[in-house]
Amino acid sequence: MEREESGTTTVNDKEMTSLVHMETIEERGDLLNQQCSNCDGNLARHWCLDCYEALCGDCVTAHRRVTLTRSHRLLNQPCNDDRFRPPIKFCKLHPPEPLRLFCFTCNHLTCRDCQLLAHKNHRFSFANEAVDGLRKKLDACMQPIRAQMEVSRKSLQDMEMRLKVLARSELHLTNSLQEVFRSLSELLKARLERLTREIQTIYDLEREMIKGRMLKVKELQEGHRSVREAADKAQNSRDLLVVLRCVEQVTSQVKDLKDQDLSPPSNMVYLKVTTDRQTVESMIRFGKLLLSWVPFCVSKEFKESVEPHPASSTSSPTSQPLTSSS
């Protein structure tokens, strides 16, 4: 019997006899009587955590001598704790035989007899060892998801900050317009209302776009969270099928990562109001909005601008102050 680098084992003809004498699990009430699982009549003095068997002293010696079971973990007393004995699954083809091996070639649980016959020369290992390997694979699969969750968290944080900047910039522009228009005649009032509505419409456009993007990112984040919870649960499980299903679920979602855009919008509104030195007639058309889209960013100044602080006369970080001509 040869071990490969991956921790699995293959059976050859020379080692078949050794596998035939591999210990079987006798879980049907024997443990309650503290009898050895291999020797009928001998009292159990030890417990194998890997085979889930009660063993007498002689069987422990043999257990440590066989290459296949030499590295198993042994307790110096029989185990009556159900936490160390998960439900035993038995082979449908060989009912007396427990399914404690995992065939990597066929990707399912096998018993000793199945491994010697239908799965001869296939790669296999003990089920508990296969669980450990699959849990490591699951952890590796979760790495890009954890990284993407961090990216999504930062993206949401930036977009939330941008919404605050939008609100502050909108307020600044609106107030600036109101200060200028208050010095004008009633002829300019209609123009004021129109410009204010245009500003609101433009900011609403970006606001709705960002909220829509945030909703998509949050939905994706919820999906990641559910997968992570399933993965965490699988990490604590000793059930091979549960872990295997979780690995398949995570692997499937990892394939879709490259198609998911978590970044904020590539452009954002850059809005300012300009005035000019025109006649009274042109003042009726006073005010003009210049709309452009610039790369999305949340600078240190942006963050400081939305922090609570005493009112000041500084201009908006995203807008030029309005100027009027005499």
Question: What is the average of the pLDDT values?
Answer: 74
Give helix % range: 40-55%
- Give the tally of β-strands: 10
Rg calculated over all Cα atoms: 35 Å
**Major sheet characteristics:** 3 strands, antiparallel
Across the major sheet, the strand order is 4-3-5
Low-pLDDT residue spans: 1-9, 11-33, 311-326
Total domain units: 2
The separation of the N and C termini measures: 97 Å
Total helical segments: 8
Beta-strand fraction estimate: 5-15%
The succession of helices and strands, N to C, reads EEHEEHEEEHEHHHEHEH
> What is the overall silhouette?
rod-shaped
The class by helix and strand makeup works out as alpha+beta
GO biological process, one term: innate immune response
Biased composition (Low complexity): 310-326
Domain B box-type: 36-77, 86-127
Protein name: Tripartite motif-containing 33-like
Key phrases:
single chain, 326 residues, alpha+beta, 2 domains, three-stranded antiparallel beta sheet, 8 helices
Task: Offer a concise description of the structure.
By secondary structure, the protein is an alpha+beta fold. Helix content is about 45%, strand content about 10%.
Describe the overall structure.
The protein is built from 8 helices and 10 strands. It has 326 residues and is α+β, with helices and mostly antiparallel strands. The chain has 2 domains: 2-130, no CATH class; 141-306, no CATH class. Helix 4 packs antiparallel against helix 5 and helix 4 runs parallel beside helix 6. The protein is rod-shaped and about 115 Å long.
